[in-house]
Every structure is written in C-alpha cells, then in structure tokens.
Amino acid sequence: MIRPRTLHQPALVATACALVLAACASTPDVDRQDRRFNEITVDELQAAMTGGELDSVDITRHYLDRIERVDPGINAIIETNPDAEAIAAALDRERAETGPRGPLHGIPVVLKANIDTGDAMATTAGSLALVEFRAPDDAQLVTRLRDAGVVILGKANLSEWANIRSTRSSSGWSSLGGQTRNPYDTARNPCGSSSGSAAAVAANLVVLSVGTETDGSIVCPAGTNGIVGIKPTLGLVSQDGIIPIAHSQDTAGPMARTVRDAALLLDAMAISTEQTGSLLDALEDATLEGKRIGVVRNYPGAGAHPGVDAVLQSAISAMEAAGATVVDIELHTDGAGAAEWEVLLYELKADLATYLQDAGAPYASLEELIAFNKANADTVMPLFGQEIFELAQAKGDLDDPTYTEALATGRRITRGAIDSALDANDLDALLAPTNGPAWLTDPVNGDTFSIGSSSWAAISGYPNITVPAGFVSGLPIGVSLFGTAWSDAGLIAIAYAFEQATQLRRPPGDG
C-alpha cells in the first residue's frame, strides 16, 4: 500500500538539503558504490553487464538502496516496484541464455505516477482519490519498454493531476506524494508536472525516467533539474494508458542525464520512427557544422534575468564556435495562449472521464473527482483548491464550436509561426531558454514562474528537447531546441552535438 506523505514545512528544508548531499547514513562501502554509479550512462551499465562486473540485480538493488537513503531529502518517488528485483533476475537469466534484447536490457526506469502499469503498483496521478487504484494493464509505452527489457523500478511523484487542478498550485506537490524538492537546493522548486521524474534522474536515484507533458511538464523540470528531457512530436509515443489532460497536446517523453540515453529511451517508447527517421542513427554523425539555428528573442520572460541572458549567450557562442550559424528571430503567436486554455478545459473534462471509465477507476468523471476533493478537503486541498477542475466541469462537449474553433486557432497560429520562421530563414531548429532559476517553493502563494518557452511546441504538437546549458547561482538552466513536426531526430542530433561540445551537466553538490 502507498503511504500518503505530508508537505514538509520550510523549517525542515535545510535538513533535507543536508540529507541529499550526505546520502543519509553513508559508510565507506556505500560511498564507493555511489561513486561507481554516479552519472553512469546506459552504455556504461551495459558494458559492465556484458563484462560480468555487474548484473541487472546489482543495478536494481543499488538504485532501490539509494532511493531509500537519499529520497527522503528529495521526495521524488511515490512507490517502488515490489517485483523489481525479481524482474531483474529474470532478465539476467535471459541474458545468460540468449543474450540481451537490446541496449536497455536490464536497465531500471522510473515512470511518472500517471502512467498505467498492470502490476502491483498503483496509478494515481498523485491524488488520494486513486490511492488504491491498480490499472487493468500496462500503458502501451510500458509494454514497449518491458519488451525492450527494462526494469520498471517505481513511480515518480508529480504535480497532482499533472498540475491542472489549481492556478495556485505548488509544482511537485500532490496530496498523495507531498512536495518534491529540487536536489540542487531543496528549498527550491523542481518545476512540474514531471517533478519526481526529473529530480530522481538529477539526483542519480535512477538512470532513466519517463515524464509526460501537456505544456512544459517535461522540459521545464528537466531544465530546472539539470538534465535532458524530450517532448516528442505528438503521436510518436502512444497516449494509451496515460491519465490525460488533453489528447491534442499530451505526450510521454524520456528524461535522462545525457542526450544519447534519452534517445535510447525514446527509441524504445516510440510507436514508429518511420516519419522521424532513426533517432539513434542521427547521433552517429551529429554535428553543429553548417547548421542554422534561430534564436527566439521574444520568448516569455525575455530579459527577466541577466544570468539567463548570459547562459543563452554562452550557448550561442558555443554553437557558433562549433560551426553553426545563429540568427535572431521572433515568433508572433498572439491568441494562441487563450485558445490553448479553452482546449485544455474542454479536453480535460472529456478525456479524463473516458480514461476513468475505460480503466474501471473508482471515480468515473471529473464531477465525481470534484465531489471527492470537497469531501476530503482537509487532506486533498490543504494548500490550494480546484478552480481549474470546476472551470473544466462547466464546459460543454467536444462538438461545441467554441472548442473546435479554439483547437484550430491554436494549431494554426503556432504551427504557422514555427514553420514560417524555419522556412523563411532556412533554419534547422529554433532555440530559446527552457527555464529561469528555480524559485523558492511556496505552499502559500504557489509557483512563481519567470521564464519559459514550452508553449510553442506544446500547442503545435511539435518536438522540443532541453539540454543543460549552464547555471545561475548554482541552479541549472537549460536551453530548448524545437522545430517542425517529425523533426525529432534532427533536433536530437543538434542537441547531442551541443552537449558533446559543452559538457555542462553537473550533478547536485558537485561544485
């Protein structure tokens, strides 16, 4: 059974930060083990298993142990899989008998807690309403990951209902999981809604995780936690078995410490790469030489922080030094945000009801969840309410002209702006800061976002990848590369070339 966690009070934050860096009750043996796995890549884990130095059980046990020791200071993991070691042992036997299935054979992966698993773990979206809900089967992306030989290690905490309940929410807080903290400074926020998925990878609690995004929920926590996150083209990864917000924007995507690891995970999750081309082959000859990158100068929050301006300029300089041509552009998308808001409200009401009913969940509609929250307000809504839920409940059906017009408007504006900018300037990708410095977690006032660039790719359904680009006062800043539909492989190649040229990822506590 999952045990609900409570929000830690600010007075405890400093203690939590110390726990993260000290890894709790460490010993010389534990320290050596942590150093051995710290920042390790999928390829390095595979090489160790091929060489007989490690097996999947060793790797799985290490991460389960590290979660137990370190996660009390971060609160990234809602639940670990009680069958993880048994799955790892079976994969080790298979490796010995027939060889590995592929590059992810025996590799542990954490899933965001809004992704179905047909096993002993619950699928909750962080809500106490679903605390005992077990999905009837795996999400299609989970089936694909199991087929690739991964070990599903556990479920990550998130902003409850993927941050669509209230305008005053604290990212990374759920009534079931409590508050996830940023491992670079646990007084600060990890962004969301894939908060635990990002923080777990950043803090080396796992090598790979899966997040989901409607608008910013992969790239913002990835950037804020100093890792790589990919929001793929809508449709590259199946939406099956993901507790939804909006089918016109929802997608799962990989989170990792390196671009190659993220590409390996996305390749396994993808329905088909026929339209994108091989995500892994794109890495083979990745280069910035001859690439044309458009820097979007009018991103939301542009000029809000000189430190972010400096990080962006440093990224531009690195790209130019590696042979890219960087040009300034602007994207004008007035009206897209208002259209998106209408779409999200309408689709939340319809899509959530469809999921709950099809999955046999204990509540069958948004209206029933609203009633549950009201009846359990002391535990479900101690910090903020559910005004977005209530706005969505007041909307009509998906045949309402207000909805259909908003959907068409948002896509027309954002797709038109991105595609015309790429075409007019002969660009390979667009570039903007992913995030500003992580803000102090504030359960009274909620989030205080300052900088973000996710909405263009989110509303259009186009791909977006964030890569570590530097730090402001020790807090990670990412840059986002985005482009037109099915340009995922090309963007991954550019991101990889940038990563290899700069090597700016740094784990928490390392300087």
UniProtKB/TrEMBL annotation:
<dbReference type="GO" id="GO:0004040">
    <property type="term" value="F:amidase activity"/>
</dbReference>
<feature type="signal peptide">
    <location>
        <begin position="1"/>
        <end position="25"/>
    </location>
</feature>
<dbReference type="InterPro" id="IPR023631">
    <property type="entry name" value="Amidase_dom"/>
</dbReference>
<protein>
    <submittedName>
        <fullName>Amidase</fullName>
        <ecNumber>3.5.1.4</ecNumber>
    </submittedName>
</protein>
<feature type="domain" description="Amidase">
    <location>
        <begin position="58"/>
        <end position="491"/>
    </location>
</feature>
<keyword id="KW-0732">Signal</keyword>
<dbReference type="InterPro" id="IPR036928">
    <property type="entry name" value="AS_sf"/>
</dbReference>
<dbReference type="Pfam" id="PF01425">
    <property type="entry name" value="Amidase"/>
</dbReference>
<keyword id="KW-0378">Hydrolase</keyword>
